[in-house]
Every structure is written in C-alpha cells, then in structure tokens.
Amino acid sequence: MRYAQIQERLIATDGSYPVIGRSITYRTGTFHHLANVAYTQLLLKELSPAQVRCALTAVIKKVTDAKEIFDDKGWLRIGLYGHQPLLAETYISTGSLYLCSAILLPLGLPESDPFWSSADEDWTSKS
C-alpha cells in the first residue's frame, strides 16, 4: 500500500512520470500496482480514490496523446511516448505492449464506487 502511495506521488502535474526500470515500453503498465490497490480498495487513508482516478487518467492521457503510438493496422508500437523501438528490451513484443492495460483494473469497480462517483481531486503533485 505504501508503494502505491509512492507511485501516486511520482505522477507529475502533466501526467508524466519518471521512467524507471526495464519494461518501460509497457507504458501505463508501470502503474499496475497503484491501479490494483485502488481496485482492491486498499488505498492508504492519505490517498482518496478520486485523487488516484484523476492521477491515473492524467497518465493515460499523457501517454496516449503521442503521435505514432499505433501502426497502420491499429496495433501498439514499441515505445513509451510514441514509436521508440530502441527503448525495448529483447523480450518485448507487440503482444507484451498490451500490459499497458493493467492501469485499467479499476474499470472492474461499479460506477457507484467512490473511485468513479467522487468529484475530481488533485493528486499530490497538483495540490
């Protein structure tokens, strides 16, 4: 739960975040843990569900705003922000890029859940 709090703090005001680790081409998959903690409703009391929703949304918007994110057949291309094949480790393939969808885990929550129903809130770097 503490690591989820740290992840939320890493999200800048524009939705960017420090690129750390080996599998950076998973894009928003970096926030699998934060998304899962929100989904399982195990957020520390210092993090509100709405704050996390807004932070994760900013990350999604930032990463998907890039040009050349999809190839001419609609498949994700290797990269973090756009098409950057040199960022890939040898084990990265088009299929593995879809680990980015892990950020969508809270979609399993009902619309009545505070994650969805609470008013927008600033996340840590915006407050």
N-to-C order of helices and strands:
HHHH
Query: Could you list the spans in which at least 5 consecutive residues all have pLDDT below 50?
Result: none
Q: Main β-sheet, in a few words?
A: none
For the residues shown, what is the average pLDDT? 95
- In one word, what is the shape? elongated
What is the structural class?
mainly alpha
Strand content: under 5%
Q: What separation lies between the terminal Cα atoms? A: 21 Å
Strand elements, count: 0
Provide the helix percentage.
25-40%
Radius of gyration: 15 Å
The number of helical runs is 4
Write a structural description.
The structure is a single chain. By secondary structure, this protein is mostly helical. 29% of the residues lie in helices and 0% in strands. The chain contains 4 helices and no strands. The chain has helices spanning 2-10, 32-39, 49-64, 114-117. The longest helix has 16 residues, at 49-64. The protein is elongated and about 40 Å long. The two termini are 21 Å apart.
Summarize the structure.
The chain has helices at residues 2-10, 32-39, 49-64, 114-117. The chain has 127 residues and is mostly helical.
